[in-house]
Amino acid sequence: MEFQSVNKLLEKSFQVNWDRAALSNYQGVTLSYRDVARRIAKLHIAFEQCGLERGDKVAICSRNQANWGVSFMAAITYGAVAVPILHEFKPGNIHYLVNHSEARVLFVDEVIWEGLSPDEMPGLSVIVQINTFKFLYARSPELANIREHLNESFGRKYPNNFEPEDLDYYVDSPEELALINYTSGTSGYSKGVMIPYRALYSNIEFAHKDAEPQLKAGMNCVSMLPTAHMYGMMFEFLYEMTIGMHVHFLSRVPSPKIIMQAFAEIHPDIIIAVPLIIEKVYKSKLKPIVDRNKFIMALPILDNVIAKRFCTELTHAFGGQFEEVILGGAAFNPEVERFLHKIGFHYTVGYGMTECAPIIGYAHWDKVKVGSAGRAAMNMQIRIDSPDPRNIPGEVQVAGPNVCLGYFKNEQATRESFTEDGWFKTGDMGIIDEDGYLFLRGRSKCMILGPSGQNIYPEELEAVINNYTYVVESLVVEEAGGLTAIIYPDYHQGELDGFRRAELEKRMLTYLPSINQQLPNYAQIKKIEFIPEDFERTPKKSIKRYLYQR
């Protein structure tokens, strides 16, 4: 494939869409492409005066907001390496990642700044308050002085106003390092994934030509996933910026209520989400109706009418204007997926990971196979390390321009993650059918060996358990040679239905025989345990499994 400069794509988009809306904080400020370009230009001046060189690292740690986007694009269009850090990390983690990445500049919001100490991050030249771009810390009075006179410096550099033709962004090359993205996976150990520009460009080309060719300048997108995570960064922000779209950052905790309110107001043209959001809507609004009308829905004639009504209502709830809802980042509940497929809802389940920036597998909503994670995305190849890839699960291995350069300052992890012939080892298990569709079975690290050597994928057992009333989420772990299901119950709903906590738990223990009826003999659940609060999760909303292993 032929690569183009990602920064020059941004430059052209800014010039063409100068007066269009670019970035908004939901129910707050809106920046046009002109405003964004102007802020980037000021930051470039500050970077230069601070002595920042091409290839130096710029860390960004804040919740989603318009200035997150400005800071990120200012870093890469200058030629620096962006280091997005998830704002959910604890202060100790943030100190470590800033130091590990060798960052020279840190953008941070006020809430996170309260827990940080400049003394713990000696490599930083300046720390910038992301909401105002004021310097919270500067290593010397000379550096502090740069911010005080930034407007004067800007005026001297652009004496005749700041116009589209003034943009001249850094020209990146395909193998060059664009950003270091620290994983927040379920294994508990953050690694700095080195993402090259070729991976960003390949993902942009995939979105432009395959997944989202209908998107145009002026259309809307709601950014609700963490922008510090590759999935949200690439498909709710960066791609949109290259084609002149308007990105609305929720800029607060993305609860289902806030998300649905934003969809109703903004009417997004594309929706990028994790399955948890749709599963919550299904469980709270649709499943009770489905359960009450099982007999009617079994009648073919009425079934179509009801299915169409369900589809219309769900589509309307998500804003009514989208081409499709692209789900990814976690396994999708099979019951919910079968229901969406039955009613004809425009959804698809993709497959990706940070190390592929992020896309690996995808199929358009009208080509979806229920239970699959799509086919190899544009520019990518997928293979299964198995003697019989169609029937015997093996590790999913991938190759293509999306694949990362490796892990920053971790040669051992880099070596272990690639095969001898250069394919990336995902750590996921799966099979591929005769049409090239990928069906995931779970993480190889999570796999449990059954009593007679059978492979048990706890995610498949959890999908059965999660369909039961009052189950918010479950986790299956191996304990004393058997399987235990840890369940987080919906105590609030139970209370509304008249059950005290102990009564609800007693009722849910009676689910065990019914659950085991749906599971193979070698994967029977021996006991159920309850936890009083939700599982600890990554920002992608996956459960941190390593915390619950016995």
Could you walk me through the main structural features you see in this protein, from its secondary elements to its overall organization?
This protein is of the alpha/beta class and about 550 residues long. It folds into three domains: about 5-20 and about 30-200, Rossmann fold; about 270-320 and about 325-445, 3-Layer(aba) Sandwich (Rossmann fold); about 450-550, GMP Synthetase, Chain A, domain 3 (2-Layer Sandwich). About 35% of the residues lie in helices and about 20% in strands. The chain is built from 19 helices and 27 strands. A five-stranded mixed beta sheet has the order 4-3-5-6-7, with helices on both faces. A hairpin with an 8-residue loop joins strand 18 (about 380-385) and strand 19 (about 395-400). The longest helix is centred in the middle third of the chain and has 18 residues, at about 275-290. It is globular, with a radius of gyration of 24 Å. The model has no long low-confidence stretch (mean pLDDT about 90).
Give a quick summary of the entry.
The chain is α/β, with parallel strands linked by helices. It is built from 19 helices and 27 strands.
Topology:
Elements: H1 6-16, E1 21-25, E2 30-32, H2 33-49, E3 57-61, H3 66-78, E4 81-84, H4 91-100, E5 103-108, H5 110-113, E6 126-129, E7 134-138, H6 141-148, H7 150-157, E8 177-182, E9 192-196, H8 197-211, E10 220-223, H9 230-243, E11 246-249, H10 256-266, E12 271-273, H11 275-292, H12 294-297, H13 300-317, E13 325-327, H14 334-343, E14 347-349, E15 351-352, E16 359-362, E17 375-376, E18 381-385, E19 394-399, E20 406-407, H15 411-416, E21 424-432, E22 438-443, E23 448-449, E24 455-456, H16 458-465, E25 471-479, E26 482-489, H17 491-496, H18 501-509, H19 512-517, E27 525-530
Parallel strand pairs: 1-11, 3-4, 3-5, 5-6, 10-11, 12-13, 13-14, 26-27
Antiparallel strand pairs: 1-2, 6-7, 8-9, 9-20, 15-16, 16-17, 18-19, 19-21, 21-22, 23-24, 25-26
Helix pairs in contact: 2-3, 2-7, 8-9
